[in-house]
Amino acid sequence: KFNLSWEHVVLSALFVLVFLGVVYYLRFQNLQVHNVYGVKVLSAGEPQNALAQALSPENLVMEVNVYSNAQLQDNSNGLLSALSADVAYALSSGGKKVAVYGKIADTNEYVNGSCSVETNFCSNPQVVLKVDDCNCVKVEGGRVSVLYDKTRLADSDLRYTLRGMFGGIVTGKRDALNAT
Fold first, then answer.
1. Phi first, then psi: what are they for 5, rounded to 5°?
2. How far apart are CA 42 and CA 142, in angstroms?
3. Residue 147's pLDDT is what?
4. What is the predicted pLDDT for the residue at 139?
5. How many CB atoms lie within 10 A of CB 22?
6. Where on the phi/psi map is residue 142: left (φ > 0), alpha (ψ -120 to 50), or beta?
7. 43 vs 6, 55, 61, 106, 143, CA distance in Å?
8. pTM reported for the whole predicted model
9. What pLDDT does 29 receive?
10. Taking the chain (180 residues) in consecutive chunks of 10 residues, what is each chunk's mean pLDDT?
11. Looking at residue 70, what is its pLDDT?
12. Bridge partner residues of 14 (DSSP)
């Protein structure tokens, strides 16, 4: 017979909290949360400089994580396509050449025809777009990851805000952005 006491419950709850804290720390190790133009940005240093550095090459490659027909249960691909168009527009308006490829989410498969010389044959993207519950832009290892859940992706104000943020970063008009 198993006897459950309050001490066991409290110790178990404490263990779970400590475990979750360690996981959170390891996931976002050295990354600090910033607000740039109303966007939550995770970066190790000053977010505008980290974004500018990651987006500094003249030729940028963007990976869009889409869903196969078997995975697709909603309008995620359409939302990701709209966001990728807005981000690519902002980057190209800043004088960048942007090549975009599609990667099937959670696989090593790519959308037919998207791997080419322009996309570095689907490798080493500077920008990654994917559905994720972070609801943030993460700058890490020279890569900018745009990670939003389906509800936020459907928000046209978010796409407008991200387009303004990316445009401001690559045009050098970062003073107009509100960073805290």
1. -105, 165
2. 13
3. 96
4. 95
5. 10
6. left
7. 41, 14, 20, 24, 10
8. 0.77
9. 58
10. 72 80 62 86 91 94 86 80 94 93 87 81 92 94 94 90 92 58
11. 66
12. none
> Side chain identity at 133, as an amino acid letter?
D
Q: What is the CB neighbour count within 10 angstroms for residue 67? A: 16
Distances, alpha carbon 45 to alpha carbons 6, 39, 82, 150, 159, in Å: 44, 16, 29, 28, 24
**Burial per residue of 43-61, b for 16 or more beta-carbon CB atoms within 10 angstroms, e otherwise:** beeebbebbbebbeeeebb
What lies within 8 Å, CB to CB, of 80 at 6+ separation is 64, 65, 66, 129, 130, 131, 153
3-state per-residue secondary structure call for the chain: CCCCCHHHHHHHHHHHHHHHHHHHHHHCCCCEEEEECCEEEEECCCHHHHHHHHCCCCEEEEEEEECCCCCCCCCHHHHHHHHHHHHHHHHHHCCCEEEEEEEECCCCCECCCCCCCCCCCCCCCCEEEEECCCCEEEEECCEEEEEECHHHHCCHHHHHHHHHHHHHHHHCCHHHCCEC
Whole-number Cα distances in Å, 31 to 34, 109, 132, 148 = 9, 30, 17, 18
Q: What is the pLDDT of residue 111?
A: 85
